[in-house]
Specification:
With about 425 residues, the chain is mainly beta. It has four helices and 29 strands. Strands 1, 3, 4, 5, 6, 21, 22, 24, 25 and 26 form a ten-stranded antiparallel sheet that branches. Strands 7-29-8-27-28 form a five-stranded antiparallel sheet, with helices on one face. Strands 11, 12, 13, 19 and 20 form a five-stranded antiparallel sheet that branches. Strand 11 and strand 12 form a beta hairpin. The N terminus is likely disordered.
Length: about 425
């Protein structure tokens, strides 16, 4: 069993982390699924008042601390994991349930992989109130890569859950950790095609709860047994629009068409098989295929930056080059989760706010989140799912995952994925 240091934090002894933290970062570097919450006045966060506890070593290359920030409307409390990616025994990976279309608590995901620490990840398909009778998939919004395996692509921007995207952001934005042991903000686009004697057509989706209008999507065994009907609901600009009826589904097994249907189905997809779903123009193309016909389906996620990613999780950038991104929301206040990058990608900061009731606590706006991450030492930062999804987990002395923060629901919310930290020491 990995030896983990006890985390005995006393709030009676706090150390300043504002100017010193920012200076160290500068020298080194040269959400919510369901939006809601109170409102706050626009404007910058107060310049002083951020304090944090001395860091406690959880494992080689991994430390834990708590922080406190007083604001006029209340106290912000949170938890911070600092990960030295350059340490030879440290690694980071995407934690996820057995299927893309499934959810699980962060503590369960962390225990399954024996992670030293973890925070919740991407926003996800949490509700289908606008599509009565359509099964909620629990599938994440953005691209997902785990242990080098491409799990899914990004849904159209208009189909996402979470706060309004700031200008220039997209569902394809990810926090990635490369095989070079460096963290980066990147953008992953799906490149793929469906090829047969009937023609060659672009692939527009991979294991996604929503497909672009007129597109064709591929679903593999990693999707799970959940219904695929949600894939043809909504439009590229309106998540709540009705479900399309001009659809087709084709099953490819061992490179040949074995089944066709007019509507998306449900149930297990056998390993090695691919189910293609088309809507509008994509459906008409799939209807040109016939039983027994040879079909090849290829796909890959392509980033803007060089280097293969070991893992990637969706969200949207809030901090770039030490400055908050333009157009960040300054009104909605809620609990937040974020991943920050410092020291030229060598340090990863995982943060979640604490939602404990009855302590005059408050959450943050997205703009305030960006400012907080800069003060904690990040040069770049990604907003992950927040609100009731915000969960921060570390291992206890017995090697079991312990939830350190107080989720606002009063208990852990099952989520689509999480960012997990590992140490071989």
């Amino acid at each position: 069993m990995r030896t983990v240091a006890a985390v005995a934090v006393a709030w009676g002894v706090l150390v300043g982390g504002t100017a010193a933290g920012a200076a160290r970062a500068a020298a080194a570097d040269g959400g919510d699924t369901a939006r809601g919450g109170a409102t706050a006045d626009a404007g910058a966060m107060p310049d002083s008042g951020l304090t944090r506890t001395p860091p406690v070593r959880l494992a080689p290359g991994v430390t834990y601390a708590e922080f406190r920030l007083p604001l006029p409307r209340g106290i912000v409390r949170g938890h911070l994991l600092t990960v030295d990616l350059s340490h030879p025994g440290v690694s980071v990976d995407l934690l996820h349930p057995a299927a893309v279309a499934a959810r699980a608590p962060v503590s369960e995901l962390a225990d399954d992989r024996d992670a030293v620490g973890a925070v919740n990840g991407d926003f996800f398909n949490i509700s289908e109130a606008q599509h009565p009778g359509v099964e909620v998939t629990g599938s994440p919004v953005g691209p997902a890569v785990s242990s080098g395996r491409e799990l899914k692509g990004a849904v159209p921007d208009g189909q996402r859950f979470g706060p309004t995207l700031p200008p220039g952001a997209t569902t394809r934005d990810v926090l990635g950790i490369g095989y070079d042991h460096r963290a980066r903000l990147d953008r992953l686009a799906l490149h793929g095609a469906v090829r047969s004697a009937s023609g060659s057509w672009p692939l527009r989706g991979l294991n996604q709860y929503a497909l672009p209008e007129g597109g064709i999507g591929a679903y593999t065994a990693r999707w799970g047994r959940t219904s695929r009907e949600r894939a043809v609901c909504g439009t590229d600009s309106d998540r709540g629009a009705g479900c399309d009826t001009d659809t087709a589904e084709v099953t490819i097994r061992n490179g040949r068409v074995t089944e066709t249907a007019e509507r998306p189905g449900a149930g297990v997809i056998e390993p090695g098989s691919v189910v293609l779903i088309g809507r509008e123009a994509g459906a008409r193309r799939l209807r040109a295929l016939h039983l027994g016909e040879r079909v090849r389906v290829g796909h890959r996620l392509v980033g803007r930056l060089p280097g293969r990613l070991r893992c990637a999780v969706g969200g949207f950038p809030v901090l770039r080059h030490g400055r908050p991104a333009a157009g960040l929301d300054t009104a909605a206040v809620t609990m937040r989760t974020s991943a920050g990058i410092a020291n030229r990608g060598r340090t990863l900061l995982l943060m979640a706010l604490d939602g404990e009731k009855g302590r005059h606590q408050t959450g943050l706006t997205v703009r305030e989140l960006a400012e907080l991450m800069a003060r904690l030492g990040a040069r770049e930062a990604m907003d992950l799912d927040g609100g009731g999804s915000s969960t921060f987990v570390t291992q206890d002395l017995y090697g079991e995952a312990r939830v350190r923060n107080h989720p606002t629901d009063g208990k852990e919310r099952p989520v689509a994925n999480a960012v997990g930290v590992f140490s071989a020491g």
